[in-house]
Amino acid sequence: MIDVKGMMRAASQRVNIDQLVRQGKKTISLLSKEKMEELINQAVRNIVDKYRAMAAGVAQVPVDQIQAESKAEFNELLQTYQQTAKAKTDLEQSKQALDGELEELRRDLERQKALADGRLSEEAEKALVIGFKEFERELDKQVVRVFEKRKAILAETNPEEAPELKQVEAMIRPIIARIVAAERERFQMSGGQSRETQLMEKRIEKLYAQIAAMESALRMISQSKVYSNQQINNVLRQLGLVTEDKNFEKKKEMLKFVLDANKGINKDGAALAAKGITLANPQGFAEALAAEKAVALPPAGAPAVAPGPEAQPPKPA
Amino acid sequence: MAPEAEPAGRTTKEGVLYIGMDLGCFKTSVAATNGTREVVHSIVGWPKDPVSRKMLGKDIVFGNEAFQHRLALDTIRPFEKGALKYADNAEAGVKPERLAKYKEAAKELVKYVVSLCRPPKGTLVYGVIGSPARASILNKQALIDACKGTFEAVMIVSEPFAVAYGTNTLEDALIVDIGAGTTDLCRMHGAIPTEEDQVTSGKAGDFIDNLAMDLIAKAHPSAQFTVNMVRDAKERGSFVNDVNDKAMVTWPNKDGKPTQYDITAQLKEACSAIVPDIVAGLRKLVSSYDAEFQKRMLTNVILAGGGSQLRGLDRLIEKDLDQYGGGKVTKVNEPVFAGANGALKLAADMPEDYWKEVK
User: Fold this and answer.
1) What interface predicted TM-score (ipTM) does this complex get?
2) Which of A147, A155, A163, B216 is the most buried (most CB within 10 A)?
3) What is the value of pTM for the model shown?
């Protein structure tokens, strides 16, 4: 065994994380001392095993060769490890990004829903409600005061009518309260308030759909047997979340070529089949192909026309 | 137990499932936009007799299950030796009277592979299938026929082009797709590759297996083994680099006694045998390219396909390229799914109108 840790301590340099951040490095790949030791030891062990097995009857192996092979072996192991680690980091970053977006959407939705439910009433609405309540109380007080005053007058002039007045008061007060409540409701339902609520509800539905799609993507990624950027990209593409790439225009043209090529296959295949030329009976296929070449096939995805002697070597598009 | 496919004859559009498929001579890989990714043996089997029918509990068996129970089945590898895919009957060794059975097997295999993607009822299934660069119109038509009834619409693309599209290496790159039957090389120069941009070599996975078999038989005459055992050993411990690994296998000897054999040298020799053709193909594609950009292309050689998993292959090709001024070879992240992923990307990017035109 080699004292890898000691060697690494001697050869490594300590860097402050703040310093890395200042250099603009947001993420760093970590390769633990244990992992490095494991990789180096494995590489060396493999080489030693090999030469131990070859020891009998084999000439001395040059030290340089052993060193070179150990180095190559280590590099390969390290590359494999780094690729795996990178794939894992990429996945975690993608997941974190999705999580963050989902959390933001959830918060937004919660706010919108609370608004729609009336839990977080807007200031104006709040003032309106409070105003109505105060108005109701004030009106009730006024009614009570009117009846009290009337009672006082009656007590002096006609005291036997006082109970009758009490009955009237008991009837009038609820009626007034009902009328005020109905008016308040009518006022609230009138104007732009209802349309605004509808819009909000639509927005909430959209947000819910987005969240469901996000959750589905996350679930798919987390449950998949194999993680890879390609897989994540496939899911994101399905959700319409993938960012455009530099070859977008080129790809558009290529897709058109692929379509044309396939239309050509269908057309030519049908024409050959009409002549009785199929895979089961390919006699005459070469002649038919040559005849078609003579009339120059349109350039399809994989044109059958061979380049002439004057054809220039292709240049990058 | 294989999931049942949804019945065909969908009339309403309740969503679209895009599928990318790489129908290989030995294995088929598939990727779909719902996250499905599967790789199965390209083999279809029918029970040989009522006993095997009873044992298997089904009339037709596919993929890995068929491979596992192949002794109890009449098996067909519909794309073996390039049958249907790129060779004519004589070349692939298919008797004319058996061709219909091959076509049926191909159709059933496609249906089975699509069923693994579990398309929901009413979903439109659009697919892109990879075909070797040397496939003729008749071969491509045969592939389209195999997909009829399973896909709502299907398109065929060259396999190395699908890899290039999937890895987004559309400019100044050389794609080497090493499958079981063929090694396809494709030059990408920012436009759709034409016939002269593609080279196909017959030296691929099957070639390695057969060569390794011959070499092992010579080196260890007492060993009993089949090509499947050799392939298995190759997949577990194949390498072409000059380092330390040892390929040890335990196979029965002539008396049936399990014996350990060292097949390192034979496997290495067989695996290395495909390299000269690859380098020659690369050289051919590069030398006929614009001189200004030749160097750039050589520094962007991409290996894909199951055969690219041979350890050290990238370094060996780089070493061979040294005589032409050097090059840089890299492997794609997922060699087995590279074709299917690219085909899926093509399918997903394809505008809806285009699908209607090939329905």
Assistant:
1) 0.82
2) B216
3) 0.59
